[in-house]
Amino acid sequence: MNMQPHLPLPAASLRHFIDLSDWDGERIRKLLKEAGRLKKAHAAGKSKPLLQGRVLGLIFEKPSLRTRVSFQAGMAQLGGTAIFLTDIDTGLGKRETLPDIARTVSQFVDAVVLRTYRHETVEQFARWSSCPVINGLSDYAHPCQALGDLLTLSEVSGGKLDGRTVVFVGDGNNVARSLALACGKVGVQFVLSAPDGYGFDAHFLDVYRDQLGTLPVQDPDPQRAVAAADVIYTDVWASMGQEAQADERRRCFAAYQVNDALLARAPARARVMHCLPAHRGEEITDDVLDGPQSVAFEQAGNRMHAQKALLLWVMG
C-alpha cells in the first residue's frame, strides 16, 4: 500500500526559499547588502567560518555546473560542508516516497538545495522537511539566479537599483519569471521581449499582479524593447527537458538573437547578462558574450556570494 504518513508536519517557521513570492523589497535589499559584504571579505581573505559544523544537502535531478559549484564552494568558505546527491542516489518519488526522503534527509543536514524538473517537488519536499529547503532550480522558478543577477546589476549600476531597466530577450521561462518578480520588488523596470506564445503564462501574471499591483511590460519587438535598457539579458531558447522543441524554438526565436545589431539599438551604457550555459551562435553571439559590455561571467561568480548570504539567512 502507498499510504501517506500521518505524523505532524514540520513547523511553518522554517526559513524555506522556494520562490520570491514571500520576499519583499526590503528583505531582498538586505540580502544583497550582506552578499556584497561577504564578497568583499572573501576578496580580502577575511572570510569567517560562520557555518562551521553545518551541513548542506544538494539533491539534484538535473545536471549542474554553476548551482552545484557555487553552493559547495560557498559552504566551504563559510566553514561548512556540502553533500551532493544525484537522482540515482535518492530516486525522488521512485524508490521511496518524497515525504519519506524529505523526513529522512532533513535529519542529517541543516538545509537542502533541490534542483528539480517539477516545482511541485520542491514544494512537497519543503512541506515534509524538518530543515530549510532552497529551490536551486525548478521548471517554474530560479530564485537563486535572480539574487545573483540583482547583485550584478547593483555592482554595474554603482549600487543603484531604482529606476534601472532590465530587458529580457527570449523565452518567458523560469529565469525570466524569478527575475521579473525580483526586479519589480526593488524598483527595477523589467521588460520581456518574446515572440507570440512564449511570453509569461497566465498564472504567473496573476501572481505578479497580486504581489505588485501591476503587470510586467511585454514588448514583442526586441529592437524597440532595448532602446532604454541598462541590461540586456538572454537565456537559451530550449532548456533541459525541452529538447524535442528545439528546432521549432530556433525558428520562432531567430529574430531574438542578442548580437551586435541588437546591441547597437541599446544605450552605450547597456550591459549584457546571461544565466549560462550559453548556446553560442543561437541566443547570443560570441562577439557579444565575450565583448566589453558582457558581465555574464562576473554574474556567474555572484551566484556564490548571493547564495552565501542566503545560506546564512536560512540557517539563522
Describe the structure.
With 316 residues, this protein is of the alpha/beta class. The chain has two domains: 25-142 and 302-314, Rossmann fold (3-Layer(aba) Sandwich); 145-301, Aspartate/ornithine carbamoyltransferase (Rossmann fold), CATH 3.40.50.1370. Helices cover 41% and strands 13% of the residues. The protein has 13 helices and nine strands. It has helices spanning 25-43, 66-77, 87-90, 98-105, 119-128, 143-156, 174-185, 202-212, 222-225, 246-252, 260-263, 286-289, 296-314, and strands spanning 55-60, 81-86, 111-115, 133-137, 165-169, 189-193, 217-218, 231-234, 271-274. Strands 7-6-5-8-9 form a five-stranded parallel β-sheet. Helix 8 links the parallel strand 6 (189-193) and strand 7. Helix 1 (25-43) packs across helix 13 (296-314) and helix 6 packs across helix 13 (296-314). The longest helix has 19 residues, at 25-43. The protein is globular. It starts with 24 loop residues before the first helix and ends with a helix. The model is unreliable at 1-10 (pLDDT under 50).
CATH level 1 name of the largest domain? Alpha Beta
How many helices?
13
Given as residue ranges, the uncertain stretches (5+ residues, pLDDT < 50) are 1-10
User: Per the principal axes of the C-alpha atoms, what is the gross shape?
Assistant: globular
Report strand order across the widest sheet: 7-6-5-8-9
* Rg for CA atoms: 19 Å
Mean pLDDT: 94
* SS elements, strand count: 9
At CATH level 2, the architecture of the largest domain is 3-Layer(aba) Sandwich
- Give the number of domains: 2
Helix-strand pattern: HEHEHHEHEHEHEHEHEHHEHH
Helix content: 40-55%
Main beta sheet = 5 strands, parallel
Q: How much strand content do the residues show? A: 5-15%
Q: Calculate the terminal CA-CA distance, rounded to whole Å.
A: 39 Å
CATH third-tier fold name of the largest domain: Rossmann fold
Helix- and strand-based class?
alpha/beta
CATH superfamily of the largest domain: Aspartate/ornithine carbamoyltransferase
